Amino acid sequence: xxxxxxxxxxxxxxxxxxxxxxxxxxxxxxxxxxxxxxxxxxxxxxxxxxxxxxxxxxxxxxxxxxxxxxxxxxxxxxxxxxxxxxxxxxxxxxxxxxxxxxxxxxxxxxxxxxxxxxxxxxxxxxxxxxxxxxxxxxxxxxxxxxxxxxxxxxxxxxxxxxxxxxxxxxxxxxxxxxxxxxxxxxxxxxxxxxxxxxxxxxxxxxxxxxxxxxxxxxxxxxxxxxxxxxxxxxxxxxxxxxxxxxxxxxxxxxxxxxxxxxxxxxxxxxxxxxxxxxxxxxxxxxxxx
Length: 289
What we know:
This is ABC transmembrane type-1 domain-containing protein. The protein has twelve helices and no strands. It has helices at 5-26, 36-39, 55-94, 97-111, 116-132, 134-167, 169-184, 191-198, 202-226, 230-238, 243-276, 285-288.
């Protein structure tokens, strides 16, 4: 990688110069002659109007091509996720509310490590939702369904990507800038591509939850796998374990605390996004907020 570094830097420089030239040649505010830039330094005071990269036409054209070429694929994803959302929501709504409440309390008891204080607090909060108004109970089930589906997508896709990053340095170097960008963009911005690709409703909310919440899970899975002691890995290999056996029998069990921390962060970010997603017609507790 080091021997190609100077060529990569040169490519960045060429791209930068190309963007400046394109902005200058396509702008209607450009000076009549390039010599004006050297004789009149007034353009250094404020950002010049001619230095405006025409990105919008390219983005519009790219989205048009994406929707025309792959519209059927997005329709299939939309149909699948919407059907899954409808079936899961109907199943949860059809359950007797005491049974559902007991299931949530038992899950909290097991997940908290049999902590009675946390379990009692969860039980009180769950009961309080229905106690306020019956409509809150139904809306909470809608919100929970969206979060569960979004979390399942994060787990199914995020954990394998994190493992790939830990085991392949090239994959890690390629994905780290993407994850940095995903965590830098404000959460509202993830709703826009979801609306463009899937319309309004629950599916764009699931898409936004996935994009917003999966980076911490990928990062912490990658970190957990890489923090496993090399001596432990060498010992497993010395006993004849294959790479697959080492991964499932050594690395993942030792990395489980980090992975669980990633799941925790993923859950918190999913709950934050699902409330914001009510702005695009997603029904749930976010309507009341």
